[in-house]
TrEMBL record:
Keywords: Repeat, Signal, Transit peptide. It comes from the Eukaryota. The lineage of its organism: Eukaryota, Viridiplantae, Streptophyta, Embryophyta, Tracheophyta. It holds the Pfam family PPR. Residues 1-24 form the signal peptide. This is Pentacotripeptide-repeat region of PRORP domain-containing protein. The keyword Lyase does not apply. GO terms for cellular component: mitochondrion. It comes from Triticum turgidum subsp. durum. The keyword Cell wall biogenesis/degradation does not apply. InterPro entries: PPR_rpt, TPR-like_helical_dom_sf.
Length: 402
């Protein structure tokens, strides 16, 4: 850090550290980002430690600097910091103004970042810029277009048609210039394309066999159907999928099951789950998706399916981790009538493995028990109350549970 501070002192940056606007202007004039772009994140951390509140210009110059140094991960870090501070990123014009030559990978990163905010007009603007620069649209561009329409607010009536249109168009994509997906930094950091472009499959990208990477467009499209609860669009996509003679991967089945359950079609969800699990290794996440989604509405049929799915999971030696257990217990604890059988079963599954779910799930489960006619000295109620008290001590005073 001493080298960084000496460099900043030599360039006259530190004396202006209490003025973020002046500091941003100094960044614009300095060559720090050209010969040492890796120091920009350290410079930003120093600003925060010194109590300097960055402004939009500060972030723009930091991002442009990292892009000039081909440090995409740092650029995304600064973009996320902007969002946390309530500043909407507007990067493309800023980079153009500074003469940054954008690569295909940069365009796609910007496209998918804007897609997450539902800014369809800005996403289309990037597509036009890519075309003007002689770059073809690849599957990640079409994935971004689907995501943009899915996230558009207010929701657009033509979104289902757009999803199908983009999937169809993506079949003819080709590179005019090869998009660099094997940059040295990404390889060294083990960053996948799915993580780089913030796709729904990002958390599964390093799981062997969970996703087939050639199905990216279907991953994003079917995930969008699940989020939107559009069964008709899902089935149109599955029909397109079958005509191409593809095989489902776990992610596609998981999202299709989620979509069916959100639409109240339990039988179709169960059928898809059983067909996949009868022929392929089934990850624990798929069991959890079926069990959690089946509890929507707390219908007798849904709770029966959830219970049976969890029992199969136990029989096959699958175990819940804290996140899965928390999600399932939180969902099951919303049951207002009935015997609370599913919630109790999930709690017992976690207790067997000495797993403590997160505070909100334990609290919801405790309240559900208290709403039932259970004696105050019931062993289960006493145990849950003790766990809740221990969590409360760790988190500090928040609310009264009694």
């Amino acid at each position: 850090m001493g080298l960084l501070k000496n460099s900043l002192l030599l360039q006259g940056l530190l004396p202006l550290s209490q003025d973020p606007v002046s500091l941003a202007r100094k960044f614009r004039g300095t060559n720090l980002w050209i010969w040492r772009p890796y120091l920009l994140r350290d410079a930003y951390d120093d600003m925060l430690l010194d109590g300097v509140q960055p402004v939009r210009d500060t972030f723009h110059n930091l991002i442009v600097g990292t892009m000039k140094g081909s440090r995409l991960q740092d650029a995304f870090y600064f973009r996320d910091q902007m969002r946390e501070m309530g500043l909407q990123p507007d990067l493309l014009e800023e980079m153009k103004a500074h003469g940054v030559k954008l690569k295909g990978e940069t365009y796609i990163c910007l496209l998918n970042a804007l897609a997450a905010t539902g800014c369809t007009d800005q996403v289309y603007a990037i597509v036009r810029d890519m075309t003007a620069a002689g770059l073809g649209l690849n599957k990640f561009c079409y994935a971004g277009l689907i995501t943009a329409f899915k996230n558009k607010t207010p929701a657009s009536e033509d979104t289902p048609a757009k999803i199908l249109e983009f999937v169809q168009q993506s079949k003819g994509w080709q590179y005019v210039e090869r998009v660099a997906n094997d940059s040295a930094e990404n390889i060294m950091m083990n960053v996948s394309d799915e993580e780089l472009y913030n796709l729904p499959t990002a958390e599964f990208a390093h799981r062997r066999g969970f996703i087939f990477k050639q199905l990216t467009i279907y991953h994003v499209a079917i995930h969008a159907c699940a989020d939107l609860g559009s069964k008709e669009t899902l089935e149109a996509l599955l029909d397109m999928f079958s005509k191409e003679n593809f095989n489902y991967d776990a992610f596609i089945v998981m999202q299709a099951v989620r979509c069916y359950l959100r639409c109240g079609d339990i039988d179709s969800a169960v059928k898809m789950f059983e067909e996949f699990s009868s022929s392929k290794p089934t990850p624990a996440e798929l069991y959890v998706t079926l069990a959690e989604g089946a509890m929507i509405g707390y219908t007798p049929r849904g709770l029966e399916v959830a219970q049976a799915t969890l029992e199969k999971m136990t029989e096959r030696k699958f175990f819940l981790n804290p996140k899965m257990g928390t999600d399932l217990l939180l969902a099951a604890s919303g049951e207002k009538t009935g015997g609370y059988t599913t919630a109790n079963y999930i709690w017992d599954m976690l207790q067997t493995r000495n797993i403590i779910p997160a505070f909100p799930a334990v609290e919801a489960y405790y309240k559900g028990l208290k709403e039932r006619e259970i004696p105050s000295d019931d062993p289960r109620l006493v145990n849950v109350a003790r766990v809740l008290d221990n969590l409360q001590l760790r988190l500090g005073p928040r609310r009264n549970f009694q």
